[in-house]
Write a structure and sequence with these properties.
This protein starts with a strand and ends with a strand. Strands 6-7-8-3-9 form a 5-stranded parallel β-sheet, with helices on both faces. It has a 4-stranded antiparallel β-sheet with strand order 2-1-4-5. It contains 8 helices and 9 strands. It is 32% helix and 27% strand. Helix 4 crosses helix 5.
Length: 206
Amino acid sequence: MLQAVRLSCRRGERRLFSDLTVKVEPGTLLAIVGENGSGKTSLLRIFSSLLPPEDGAVLWEGEDIQQLKELYSGQLTYIGHLNGIKDDLTPLENLMSAMALAGEVCSQTEAQAALEAIGLKRPIHRLPSKVLSQGQKRRVALARLWLSTRPLWLLDEPFTSLDVASTGIVTERLHAHLQRGGLGVLVTHQEVDLPTDRLQRLRLTG
């Protein structure tokens, strides 16, 4: 279980949110929505331990993530708003490199299967990523979700640059993750097509 307890966050002289408390149970997804500048990405980065809160705490299974450190990092998969794709590497190389950096080594066969699952066919796997469209690059980044075995997924605008079909594929993957008892938090400007018992929304007003 992931909990935010009375979180506050400030950017410069402006307080983005304060006294924020929310709980994400296994099998559920928290969708963070709000206008640009309302603190959505900052909250996700606090959940990922990349940004410390001004006040309050994030708890994982009842323990402060600042105390858990690497133990907590080993429980989550974080995919930011930027794809982190290196143009000179192929999609296959990018995916395998991202998994290795996250400490989740996979085989070439597994990486190829993940790319295919998100709609990237074999001929694309060995092209330089600089020739890919933005939607294809986003799918390379999101292919990690087909390889991750970690319980907590933190996703920043995962549907950006995706067409309707690809959005549906990613949503189905999220649903499968939740059905297995996983949990997630995502920042989004789009509606998420999940059963209401799997989905809760948090609107930040800034």
